[in-house]
Amino acid sequence: MFADLYFYISKIASPLIIPSNILIFLLIIFFYIGFIKNKIFIRKFFISIFIFFSIISIFPIGNNLIYFFLEKKFYYSETLNKIDYIFVPSGSIKRTIFALNFLNNSRLKDVKIIFSSGIPYLDKDNSKDSETSLVKNLISSSKISSEDIIFLPNARNTFENFKRLNEFLIKKNKTQSKILLITDAFHMKRSLMMAKKFNLNISSLPSSYITKKDSVSLINFYQNISVVNNLRKFDTFIKEMISINTSRFL
Fold first, then answer.
1. Measuring CA to CA, which residue among 71, 156, 80 is closest to residue 111?
2. Is 105 helix (H, G, I), strand (E, B) or coil?
3. Which tens digit of pLDDT belongs to each residue from 172-196?
4. What Cα–Cα distance (Å) separates residue 164 from each residue in 83, 99, 195?
5. Alpha-carbon distance 115 to 184, whole Å?
6. 0.85 cut: is pTM over it?
7. How many CB atoms are closer than 10 A to CB 146?
């Protein structure tokens, strides 16, 4: 019951907790009240928000926050010596591509990939599970047999990804299996928290990093300045930290 409530609240609140959305709305409101309506004391709020918005837009604040609080720990992940399953939670096709390439290029034997499918949208009737379709197309063009891919159904978020995995392992009497978790580095901390709730034996292998760069020189930093990317990364950090903290109550 609480899991259902958490899902609906999180999806409804999602657009309202994105920092860039909030800041832009506040800038519009305070500009109107402060300058159009000539309310001098409101102008101070506008200027403060404008300065903060400018800083996170121009400088890679979000990138650094993601690195130190979400990704740094997983830069050099060590996997288990023996693996029974590779688990790929839904949310990004890049995770599945990485998992397929990893298994194709490894010497692992008798290892199956467990993919958690699902639709994260409130209106399921007008939504398509395009990620699962893409995964099936990728499998057909890889060296891996379709029999070695297990699809878990109807996961709406990270909590349900691991709930479905745990139910599968219990059903197969494989609760002691050694599992390699493949997901984005920024998403790994929350995923491992969920795995711990179900006492799963998991090691981690990030499929991608937001903060890894080919160059760190000042001139290349200037060349790659992007207001949109800086805001997106700041939004990603805040949303992930909110999700991590609210997930503790599941």
1. 80
2. helix
3. 999 999 999 999 999 999 999 999 9
4. 19, 19, 11
5. 14
6. yes
7. 9
